[in-house]
Amino acid sequence: MKNLGLVETKTKADNALPRSGGNVTGDITITTDTEIAWRRNTDMAAIGFKNTGDGDADSYMWFKTADNGNEYFKWQHSLSGGGISEWMSLKSDNLRVKGYPVYHEGNKPSAADVGAYTKSEINNRFIPLNTNAKTSGYILAKAANLYDDPSSRHLGRSGFLRPNGIDNLGDLAIHVAHPSTEGPEHARGISFNYGSSGDKFGLSTYTFDKDGKFQGKKKILTEDDKDSLGNVPVGVPLPWPQDKPPSGYLICNGDRFDKSRYPQLALAYPSGVLPDLRGEFIRGLDAGRNIDSVRKVLSFQEHSIQSHSHSGVFTGAFERESGGRGGWGATNTNGNTAATGGNETRPRNIAFLYIVRGA
């Protein structure tokens, strides 16, 4: 047996790992490209090794499964109390860690996955900065529409409202709340009428006091408000009930004004001189009526009384007085010839200060 070399063969066989399995107590070194594979029926899982050179690109270890694509690699952990915990799995669709998918360039999370809005939802809910955008939703929450929910108004928040006439706040409103309060204290706002209303350009401003009490609203004048002072042309003298003009106005006292500073006023008074209306009455220009035809605009006229004469009728018999002079029919009178009245002829009047708007 020794001569046949069977002793050595038997020794190798005794030290070999049976095909049925066993324990290996030493190192295993593989010096060629090869794979360790498990195969059963048409399924297969393999671990491969590649080392054809010293370069890093030529040395690697690979895992492979084969069948219908359902096989995958798992990294499992045996628990001390029994059972197995799956730490990581790699399948054809994705890599998962403890059951959760790993996001990457080819598997990006959706808005729903991370609790975010989609781009379409963002465009419907918000207005992007510095972008031409059209929103299909409310700028504020729909609850700000008091026509739908009258109890939803929160005047401690700034925003756009649709009061629809509630609490005298108009049909539509821009409400500005004070940042340090939770209610309407110190709040201001601008209210609008509906564009379909009779006063479709109507604007008002409203206010609340420090205690949050509504103080009413005031109309904001527009060019449709013909009676507003702002529509009086610059240069028209206005009677003012105080001895000093308000800010932005000049007294009609005959002084010069700066035409470069007040260009609109200079159009009315090209000479740069205001009329002196102190103590004067204003008279309408004749303008072809032929009552005061010699007058020009801004010309001065002295006071006068209408031309007239006095006449008298004397009745009764005439008698001659001894010592009298003047002949028959002479009379004596005791009429007063002293001057009476003031230094001018005038009607009753009330004094105002004439002013013009400086613009």
From TrEMBL:
Compositional bias per record (Low complexity), positions renumbered to this chain: 330-343
Sequence ranges assigned to domain Phage tail collar in this UniProt record: 235-282
Ranges where the record places region Disordered: 323-343
Pfam families attached to this UniProt entry: Collar
Protein name: E14 prophage putative tail fiber protein (Modular protein)
Species for this entry: Xenorhabdus nematophila (strain ATCC 19061 / DSM 3370 / CCUG 14189 / LMG 1036 / NCIMB 9965 / AN6)
Source species taxonomy: Bacteria, Pseudomonadati, Pseudomonadota, Gammaproteobacteria, Enterobacterales
